[in-house]
Amino acid sequence: MTSPLQQKIKITGPSVITANRTWDGIVIWRTATKAWSAELSDAAIVRTADEARALLAESVADDVGAIGAYIAPVDIRDSGKVKPGNLREHIRSAGVTIELPVPA
Amino acid sequence: MYAYDELDRTIINERVEEFRDQVKRRLSGELTEDEFKMLRLQNGVYLQLHAYMFRVAIPYGTLSSEQLRRLAHVARKYDRGYGHFTTRQNIQFNWIKLAELPDALADLADVGIHAMQTSGNNTRNVTSDQWAGVAPGEVEDPRIWSELLRQYTTLHPEFSFLPRKFKFAITASDHDRAAIKVHDIGLRLHKNADGETGFEVLVGGGLGRTPFIGKTIKPFVHGHDLLSYVEAILRVYNQYGRRDNIYKARIKILVHELGIEKFAREVEEEWLQMRDSALQIDDSVIADIRSRFSYPAYEKLPHTPDELKKAAHDPHFEAWRRNSTFPHKAPGYAIVVLSLKPVGGPPGDATADQMDAIADLADKYSFGEIRVGHEQNLALPHVARRDLPALWKALDSIGVATPNVNLVSDIIACPGLDYCSLANARSIPIAQELTRRFANHDTANLIGRLHINISGCINACGHHHVGHIGILGVEKNGEEFYQITIGGRADEKAEVGTLIGPAVPYGDVADVVEDIVEAYLALRARPDELFIDTVKRLGVEPFRERVYATR
After folding, report:
1. Which positions in chain B have a beta carbon within 8 angstroms of at least one beta carbon in chain A?
2. ipTM higher than 0.85?
3. How far apart are CA B482 and CA B426, in angstroms?
């Protein structure tokens, strides 16, 4: 399998690093303080391929804490609020788009 | 039911302890994810969008009430209170924590359930006709042979690292409910002119990116020779199957590229070298497996008991009885299908409370046995017809008596982009909308048998290629679009559907399907000409003209 660090990095706008937490699998984002958060609003925003590569490298290095780190696009609203940049990331962030058989 | 022996129980329990140690080492950092990934996959553990997903095997679709209660327990204790029955006689839990997985596996192992061979490049859970052993006219219970293959392939070192995953399905009925023609190896149990039991062997079927209908490689292989013949196929595949390109690694590609004749010659050559080896199955082996299946002691019961005559006045009961109960080999009994396709619900999902209630009903009305079909419904296989009215009331009260079995709202759907990391588009909301559009039972009955299958990506877990109407989610410039095919089928006349026109956006799918159904109602020759037969008779073009005329 090709490491995410060996893949060509191309970003077209503000992006974040996201992954799943190893012990329970929940969705997490890399923060600017070299930690992980379950809130997208805490995520470090990168805007260039070099920034993305560096943040991805430190994320991938935390193999115990997180699994499957990758770069994901985000939209930054005029209010400064960070929103997922595509449907897949929206679903990862907000949860399934359907009512669960057993309400949470 | 099949009773595991001491060896099976030892294998399952040892696997739990191995995995417990592997998880511990993963969480401590002793194992990297790269090292751990194959180990977790060998225990049915995937990583999906929101969490780990845990896939549990239900070999040949047979469950005891005790096992179903344990699945409910796992759903409740380790997940979010429900499970999803898949198109390959497995159940998936979507929200499970890695740290708790060994305990979940241990709880399942107590009742003989495991997750081996539900993932990875090995021989997967052997599936079968969900009505095996009870369907009228069946040659023999195909689960005996499924179990033989299960035992043979479990942890088989030669077949644990194949070029790609490998799936078996077996049927023993003329009407194929196991979709054997879209499996890597499909086996049809039948008798030859001398009355001997054996198998028509099909090879190279499969869906996914490149769909193929399986081809008959040998019309009759005697039961004694089943393992040696299957091993010969797997050896040829293991030797020649491509490992350099994941998209070309399935046996269907090899069969297609070599041609069935050459592939068959290779297999024959291999087989002749091993045919008389230790793999030849003695009658005593089969007899032993057969003896470990328990069969109910059926009573002699009338076909139309008083209870049924009385209940026939209730149109709701009658609608359900006509739709959801099926002939049984024993007089006075019925096979009862439990629809997991309520209007507006996710196809194939069952809550822990429903599972517990169904287990209780299985004890009360079906000798403690439940079946799981690839259409993502359950069945109670041994119900006395006199008990149907009482059972219906109980099933209705827990939401599994929607009388839509085999009708337009009995939709097969994969989890799609709501859960799956491979998906490009959502499947479940499309299915939910379609069940709402076709919620009227009179309309559904007017339409008749019609299978809609939905996949959220080209991997085709929702079997869209073989849906009478197939819906495939794709992504175009960040938007969900859906390609729609018609004319596919998964039974003994299996065919891959044909694209009806350009992909349509998410919001238009239900309208297009409604238009296809309306076209069918206008085009069918008679009220009893099924959708699939009308498409076969007329081809796709008349449907395309009507559906896309204004689009």
Report:
1. 26-29, 32-34, 47-52, 80-82, 95-99, 345-346, 349-352, 417-419, 426, 428-429, 432, 478, 480
2. yes
3. 10
